Amino acid sequence: MTNLKRVAHVAILVKNIEESLKFWRDALGLELGHIEEVPSQAAAVAFLPLGETEVELVQPLTDDSGLAKYLAKRGGGMHHLCFEVEDIAAKLEELKGKGVRLISKEPVTLGNGKQVAFIHPQSTGGVLVELYQG
Ligand code: CO
Fold it and tell me: Containing domain of residue 31, as a range?
């Protein structure tokens, strides 16, 4: 078994980051690390770190992205849960061997050299799960 290291982040899809911060920062008490635009996702993301993990508030910036369509269809809410793993390629092979349905058959390498892959909610009880190797 390839080891999971930590919950890297919980991503929450929101209509408006500033509005959402009224709860997540101002009422609940998380600290806002920073906000950045992620052009590949056509989204802005607010990072609120807590211990070894982060809450990410994800706001679509266009109407036609996958995230925007998801938001329009289901409203805001939890979008995905991300685990950091030691060896993402090995983990994907392991999951395939166990009959788990994957969205990403192979890890996708991001601009920053990090690798990610997604597991289909059909295999997880309804939660989109992201794997990440730093
Ligand atoms: Co993520």
Answer: 4-133
CA of 80 to the centre of ligand 1 (A): 7
Cα(83) to ligand 1 centroid in Å equals 9
Supply the pTM of this predicted model: 0.91
Q: Name the pLDDT band for 110 (thresholds 50, 70, 90).
A: confident
Per-residue pLDDT reduced to its tens digit, 61-87 = 999 999 999 999 999 999 999 999 999
Q: What is the CATH number of the domain that holds 111?
A: 3.10.180.10
Query: 9: CA distance to ligand 1 center in Å?
Result: 7
Q: Give yes or no for a contact between 116 and 110, defined as CB atoms under 8 angstroms apart.
A: yes
Distance 127 CA to ligand 1 centre (A): 13
**What is the SS3 string spanning 63-115?**
CCCHHHHHHHHHCCEEEEEEEEECCHHHHHHHHHHCCCCECCCCCEECCCCCE
